[in-house]
Queue: 3 jobs
Job 1
Amino acid sequence: MVINTNLSAQNAATLLMQSSANLSQSLQRLSSGSKITSPADDSAGLAVSMKLSAQMARINGASNNVNDAVSFSQTQDGYVQQVNSALSRMSELSVLAQDVTKTTSDRALYQQEYGALSSYVNNVSTQSFNGVSLFDGTTLNVTTDSEGNTFGMVGINLSGASYAAATSDNITSISGAQQALTDVKGAISQLASDRANIGSNEESLSYYSNQLTALNNNLSAANSQITDVDVAQESTNYAKENILVQTGTAMLAQANQLPQSVLKLLS
């Protein structure tokens, strides 16, 4: 029996230190909800999780871009619907102005309304969305994924030749009204094509939005498998380590008492 070197106490202290470290780790995991509280816990898993988190952040950015583009297209469609109503009325006026029973004064009144509607169509062509022109015909490339790939959103040009011809006509004469009818019909045909492009843009953007949402959910689930703590399992580990710390503390106290038995040999 020795006094200077208490191997039992040293072993008990080492085991107690390990149990205390494990208990502290369980506490951190349960309180944070993450099973990776430091790089040492799972260095490879942490690296993968960091890349997944960065990709999800980029996907959220792309999703915002797509949603803004959808709002842009919806704003375009709202204006186009009103332009369609204006052109329809302009075509009606051009037919009314061809009535042989109407006087020049009557046609002048028709022209007054026709001109006001033409001004409205021209005004719509200058509208913008957050400073970006809605109807200058520019194709806008919308970012659709985390890698920066884009979708070309076809532009609409309300200042094109078809619209310009219709809005510049004068229906104060029968011949002028006949020409106006031809031009307005051409503008309506062009508007129908343009609105179909807007609808196609919205449909494509909707698919991209759904795709980004699904991808983000899948990546989030994969990241959860790597980083999120299993509370049930970790609670069991916590209970075990807590018991080991308590018993280890008690045994260390007992081990420290063993050298005192030497006194009985000396008495």
Job 2
Amino acid sequence: MGEPQPKRTPKAPRQQLPLLDLERRVTTKEEVALGFTKEQAEAEARRCLYCKDAPCVNACPLHIDIKTFIYRMLVGDHEGAFEVISEQSPFPGVCGRVCQHELFCESACLLGKKLDPVAIGSLERFAADYNRAMHPEGQKEWPKPTGPKVALIGSGPASLIAAFDLVRKNYRVTVFEALHELGGVLAYGIPPFRLPRDILNEEIEKLRRMGVEFQTDVIVGKTVTIDELFHEEGFEAIFVGTGAGLPWLLGIPGENLIGVYTANEFLTRINLMRAYDPASDTPVRVGKRTIVVGGGNSAMDAARWAKRLGSDSWILYRRGRAELKARLEEIEHAEEEGVHFEFLAAPVRILGNEEGYVTGMECIRMELGEPDESGRRSPVPIPGSEFTLECETVVAAIGQAPNPTLQRATPQLLTRKGKIVIDESGKTSLERVYAGGDVVRGGSTVILAMQDGRAAAEAIHNALSSRTADLAEVEG
């Protein structure tokens, strides 16, 4: 980088994202985090150490050249920063908002060893938002791909990044989505107050302009089978990125009472079917108090939605605050918005009235014992510590498993506990069928799903390139 070096200020305080006014936040679906101003972005870029080896790049599952894109911001080249990110990711607006940067790039930031790490995620978001403001008409058109046909099942983050990588290599890519809107968990699982739908839709539209074809309302395993995709539709490889849409249940008495939801149903109906609107065909109605059981991002999302729907919102978690698995930013926003946290407590049974409606929850206090397989200390019930909380709505946000539709329709596909088994390249037990994301991992993160999709796209390219060469040799 031969340009004059602007002044760096690594010891300056980390810039904080401006937030929507708190009173407005709890009554609207509007985005909470408003994004850096230009001045904030440039100030944050000056905090970067521009390390020679840049460990943040290796820590990023997509290996975005973080050092270079932040440098472009440092010298005021914000469009250049966007172009650097776009070499590896078409989703800076999405990832800048929902990736758990604190677990990946920011955890590797050397500045973070003594001070607050550089706000890499917020800078990525700024680059995306700045470019969007400068180019509201969208970016260029790409030449139409002419290569082999590849089918991607599901339109979540794993499939979307695979589509990006494959279409750039001239593959004719078709994405099949079971629902009526695209985005997978990005659309049905993440609220618009965290990820506005226009941001998601515009970044998906970029893939369409690149030549990716999308088909909605197609359930692979029912509407069409994998064999039919190969033998009747002419696809030469298939990627399965169907996610984890089968929620885990609490397994306690009272779970069938009216007013009990899984987080999957609760969030899908609100995020995808606009159930927050009283005029919706399927409105979600919450009572005076909603108790959300769980400590991940889905639990935070459900509790924050319940607050916006007018309910006194509680999170019941069997471990302590330090063990919460949600993004730190989402935990802090939930606390600011008035969500009450009841730590070291677990549900025993859900109580109801004669009409079958929820009236409360019996709980028990917990204490942390020895570490389990995950390395976290296991919660242990304290005998005689039972207590009751009044509530009218319960949301179970304790995890999910892969939707079994495709697996049941394809019994020759090797699975383990519902999850599709793959090798190190992403290949399944079926020839030219690959998989990745939550259908392989179970409930995980957006960025790790993208990592899987990228690995599978590379494996598909290698396999089809070898196949083409073999066929040419036979024909020759």
Job 3
Amino acid sequence: MKSYIARACITFLAVGSLAAGALTSSVAKASPPRAPEVRDLQGLQQNFPASESVPAMIIAQTSATANSGGSVVSNAASATLPILAGYVPDDKYKLRVGDKVSFQIIEDRDAPRSLVVADSGELDVPYLGRVLVADKTCKQLADELKAQLEKEYYYRATVIIALDVANKLLGRIYVWGQVRSQGPMDIGVNENLTVGKAILRAGGFADFANKKKVKLVRAAGVDGAPRLTMELNMVDILEKGAAEKDIILQPDDFIIVPSRLISF
């Protein structure tokens, strides 16, 4: 009986030794832990269409910096990259009367609102009321509204202003006096409308027009420019071809064609 128990113990010890050896061999053959992988962002970019960029989330997750010793140090700054690219509003076009723009405050999570620049050059902005916007770019206006909103209504306001439809008319001039058709006249954008062209568009001179003393009255400018009154000899300009004496009109200019005393 004692010999049987001894043989059983020896067998158990042998099996345990074999199992321990197998476990040690398995651990020895296991590959050591690898350093975090650093992906090639340029190569990653190639996997996206040319019209798209690598999503910021992907960049934040894969960006890392390798030090001189070959180890990899995670770039904490990359984890703070914004998911959405910043919106860059137009900084060249200046708003004019009749322009239609969209207005949105991202924090409200509302759809953009369509607003139109009134004849006074103002925009009726939610929360703020009437705001003068004429001659300001969308970027300037967005920055100005952001500051006002954050002063009174918001802890943080992300304001987006985009031009939807630009008014095709630059403004109006007015022709009065001895012409065939008196009244206002529209000036198109990029149109060089001169005094001579405006008179021709008004149907030309009437029978009693004093062509040599046509007056152009220009109101004082918002930038401090003084009020101007100029007298033009339209006989030289229209009949003798002295086009260099003609003057390009600006919005709100008045052309006054006086009457001559005697009709020949």
